Amino acid sequence: MPGEMIEFAANGGSAKGYLARPPAGRGPGVIVVQEWWGLNDQIMGTADRLAAEGFLALVPDLYHGDMAQEPGEAQKLMMALNVEQAAKDLRGAGQALRANGASGEKVAAVGFCMGGQLALYAGTVSPDVGTVVDCYGGHPNVRPDYPRLQGPVLLIAGDKDPMAGPGPLGQVLDAIKAVGQQAELIVYPGAGHAFMNEQRPDAYHEQHAGDAWSKMVNHLKANLR
Q1: pLDDT for residue 1
Q2: Model pLDDT for residues 77-102, shown as the tens digit of each residue
Q3: Distances from the Cα of 17 to the Cα of 1, 101, 139, 191, 201, angstroms
Q4: Is the separation of the CB atoms in 53 and 21 below 8 Å?
Q5: Among 139, 9, 157, 162, which residue's Cα sits nearest to residue 77?
Q6: Which residues in the chain land under pLDDT 50?
Q7: Residue-range definition of the domain harbouring residue 129
Q8: Domain with 92 in it: what CATH number?
Q9: Which run of H or E residues covers position 117?
């Protein structure tokens, strides 16, 4: 079932995003947070895949129409991100999922690259987010307040990732556990940054990506009853 672009309220303003519905029309809600490229075909395809797994998936456009094609441009967009506005958009995305038929008491946030850190952030700023999956996430200006997490966190990393590998994400794991929250870190040997992005042949690791996807889906199903 193809998704659609929607507009939703975001704390007094408005935002847009890509909404993918499951075959049943409704299901557990998942906020899918973009990589540093923006709202591109790859991240919308990720939402479609989650919809095929039975989830109602929404990708908020945190760049508000901007998109990058090459790393230098993506770096500039990532560093220019208005974190306060992103918080509003992420809260609005949780509410939009509920308005569009998300089932259950809470929704989830999952993200990749920059979006992994922002998914964690969503778990601390949105009252609707009850669980998080952070896939090799990082952003120097986004600092989640871990005591405000409302449910378990799954962290996924490749051991060859210099930016968000087991070192940085291990520190995140320790920080989350230190405030009494539940978290797990899964590290894939031989995998680098963005190893789950099937449109990045320089980074994609098919075997590890498939396993990580399964673990992510299982985590979501277990925590979005």
Answers
A1: 46
A2: 999 999 999 999 999 999 999 999 99
A3: 16, 16, 21, 30, 26
A4: no
A5: 139
A6: 1
A7: 4-223
A8: 3.40.50.1820
A9: helix 114-125
Residue 105 to residues 21, 90, 98, 216, 221: CA-CA distances in angstroms?
18, 17, 9, 19, 13
- Write down the pLDDT at residue 2: 79
Whole-prediction pTM value? 0.96
Q: How far is the C-alpha of 39 from the C-alpha of 170, rounded, in Å? A: 28
Residues in the chain: 225
Q: Which residues contact 179 (CB under 8 A, 6 or more apart)?
A: 146, 147
The total domain count for the chain is 1
Q: Name the E strands within the chain.
A: 4-10, 13-20, 28-33, 56-60, 103-112, 129-135, 153-158, 183-188
- Angle (CA) 175-142-41 rounded to 5° is 115
Rounded Cα–Cα distance for residues 84 and 19 (Å): 23
According to DSSP, the β-strands at 28-33 and 129-135 are unpaired
Cα(35)–Cα(212) distance, rounded to whole angstroms?
17
